[in-house]
């Protein structure tokens, strides 16, 4: 029997990038499930310190491999696609290693992005059409206790190093886990499986739910007391590392964060003036908040959870029909997107999950109901343009569609939040520009969403760097001008400038404090998309074709803020 040939070493940056994707899938099977590859993989990641070190070692090895490939063939630097891939891979791996070296993996706990949540969410992405699919689910579910044990080991190592998250994060996650157990989540999920696997599914679900209870009790009874006194604000050094992770830009150097803070405040003031005009059309003499409260009580609304899911699905289907061929050219697989209801215990904000690489699982938008059964529409329309079409779905599904021309890495793992969230905000603005928000109510909803993203820039940077409240602040901030931001001030400012429900705003504040830097990626990303479009329009003049620009922009894969506007200007 002839021995297998040795593996071929990569010869281009794109091959290195895709080799990295495979290596990550080996270490983190949740990534493979997200991509729709390796459907029979029943493993969960190793969240222990050894697992974190293995991930970092892989990143270092791939950086060395990238250096080797570029040294062997300098001409690769002249190929635009290879150049962009190499630059993205180097920046992203550098950002990941900076996060690892700062010890963030040993205190990875927040209300949205953490191993606690990833272990549950993967089951919502797994195939479940056949008995064999459910057998894989049962085997993976049985591994939940092991995954949470490894995660606990990392939190314990963080404790030994003096690395804790603030008590606010712990309390919030403990509450979320309590909601999961009220189901209980895994038992409810497993109940949909085939009777032929009932014994295996029930045993695995019971073990998984017990593991959820175990990690909840550990966080509440052991971790929380030791975390007491940990401040909510992370400080400039930690914030700078986090911002690079979410934006692909070293904003922490120089005055970049102060500039972003001042710009965010200016955007808040600009949008507020526009909100006041729109509010007057809804409730003459009323403030934006009064108009939004009136819309919530008296404006158009959908009754029923299934009814609102159907309404959101129809909205995305209608947008595809209206935009395809006029402002976008959509491949058939991209035209499919599903509206879903998020499971209990999720964070309060709507979200999107990408399609599988072969489109076997479509892109999906998710609405957390927060126990509601009545859904006013004024604040849902714009956000579904953001989450679905033409927002996240059109970009991320198009990335899947062109991944063979670029690389899997550039269209998946290499995603930069500022690029992705920036496009989604641009999509909301585009729909306003195209006249899809004709009535004052839905347009005020759009402005409310824009205001939230501007306020995020202000309070996220302001809280974590403890910057002074601006001198022209009004309302709840008037007596605090020149004083440093606190979470309490930020929550009051949110309440004064957002029409969202209090539970949503409470969740948002915890999110900003627990995931520093992510919240500013939306508005700063939108700025880059708008700057790039304006530069391309100026360069092309009368020959500028918005549809062609959109498709070229959506087909270039991921870029960080250091490159995005310049690359968009060239299209």
Strand content: under 5%
Average pLDDT metric = 96
Number of domains: 2
Portion in helices: 55-70%
- Largest sheet data: 3 strands, mixed
Q: Regions with pLDDT < 50 over 5+ consecutive residues?
A: none
Query: How far apart are the first and last residues' alpha carbons, in Å?
Result: 53 Å
Molecular shape = globular
Walk across the major sheet and give the strand order: 2-4-3
Alpha-beta classification: mainly alpha
**N-to-C series of helices and strands:** HHHHHHHHHHHHHEHEEEEHHHHHHHHH
Beta strand count:
5
Radius of gyration, taken over Cα atoms and rounded to an integer in Å: 24 Å
Question: With helices defined by DSSP (H or I, 4 residues minimum), what is the helix count?
Answer: 23
Protein name: DUF885 domain-containing protein
Organism: Blastococcus deserti
Q: Which features would summarize this protein structure in a list?
A:
DUF885; 5 strands; 571 residues; single chain; DUF885 domain-containing protein; three-stranded mixed β-sheet; mainly alpha
């Amino acid at each position: 029997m002839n021995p297998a040939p040795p593996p071929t070493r990569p010869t281009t940056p794109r091959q290195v990038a895709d080799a990295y994707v495979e290596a990550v899938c080996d270490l983190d099977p949740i990534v493979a499930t997200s991509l729709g590859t390796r459907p029979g993989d029943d493993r969960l990641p190793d969240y222990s310190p050894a697992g974190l070190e293995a991930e970092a070692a892989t990143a270092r090895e791939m950086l060395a491999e990238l250096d080797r490939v570029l040294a062997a063939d300098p001409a690769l630097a002249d190929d635009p696609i290879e150049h962009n891939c190499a630059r993205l891979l180097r920046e992203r791996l550098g950002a990941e290693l900076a996060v690892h070296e700062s010890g963030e993996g040993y205190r990875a706990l927040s209300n949205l992005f953490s191993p606690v949540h990833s272990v549950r969410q993967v089951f919502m992405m797994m195939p479940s059409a056949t008995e064999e699919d459910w057998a894989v689910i049962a085997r993976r579910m049985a591994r939940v206790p092991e995954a949470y044990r490894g995660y606990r080991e990392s939190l314990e190592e963080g404790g030994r190093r003096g690395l804790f998250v603030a008590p606010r994060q712990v309390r919030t996650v403990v509450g979320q886990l309590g909601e999961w157990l009220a189901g209980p989540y895994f038992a409810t999920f497993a109940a949909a499986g085939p009777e032929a696997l009932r014994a295996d599914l029930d045993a695995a679900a019971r073990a998984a739910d017990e593991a959820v209870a175990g990690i909840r009790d550990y966080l509440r009874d052991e971790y929380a007391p030791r975390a007491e006194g940990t401040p909510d604000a992370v400080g400039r050094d930690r914030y700078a590392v986090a911002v690079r992770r979410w934006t692909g830009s070293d904003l922490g150097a120089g005055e970049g964060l102060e500039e972003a803070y001042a710009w965010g405040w200016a955007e808040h003031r600009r949008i507020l003036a526009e909100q006041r005009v729109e509010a007057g059309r809804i409730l003459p003499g009323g403030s934006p908040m009064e108009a939004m409260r009136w819309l919530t009580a008296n404006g158009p609304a959908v009754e029923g959870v299934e009814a609102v899911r159907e309404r959101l699905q129809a909205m995305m289907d209608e947008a595809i029909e209206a935009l395809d061929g006029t402002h976008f050219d959509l491949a058939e697989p991209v035209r499919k997107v599903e509206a879903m209801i998020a499971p209990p215990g999720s964070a309060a904000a709507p979200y999107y999950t990408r399609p599988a690489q072969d489109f076997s699982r479509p892109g999906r938008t998710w609405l957390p109901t927060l126990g509601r059964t009545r859904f006013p529409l004024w604040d849902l329309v714009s956000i579904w343009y953001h989450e679905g079409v033409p927002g996240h779905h059109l970009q991320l599904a198009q990335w899947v569609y062109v991944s063979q021309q670029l690389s899997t890495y550039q269209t998946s793992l290499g995603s930069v939040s500022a690029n992705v969230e920036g496009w989604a905000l641009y999509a909301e603005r585009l729909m306003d520009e195209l006249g899809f928000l004709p009535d004052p109510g839905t347009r005020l909803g759009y402005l409310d969403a824009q205001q939230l993203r501007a306020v995020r820039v202000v309070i996220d940077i302001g809280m974590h760097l403890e910057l002074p409240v601006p001198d022209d602040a009004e309302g709840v901030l008037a007596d605090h001008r020149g004083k440093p931001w606190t979470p309490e001030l930020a929550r009051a400012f949110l309440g004064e400038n957002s029409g969202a429900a209090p539970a949503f705003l409470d969740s948002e504040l915890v999110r900003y404090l627990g995931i520093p830097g992510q919240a500013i990626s939306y508005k700063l990303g939108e700025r880059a998309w708008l700057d790039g479009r304006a530069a391309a329009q100026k360069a092309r003049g009368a020959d500028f074709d918005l549809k062609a620009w959109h498709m070229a922009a959506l087909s270039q894969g991921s870029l960080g803020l250091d490159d995005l506007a310049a690359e968009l200007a060239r299209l």
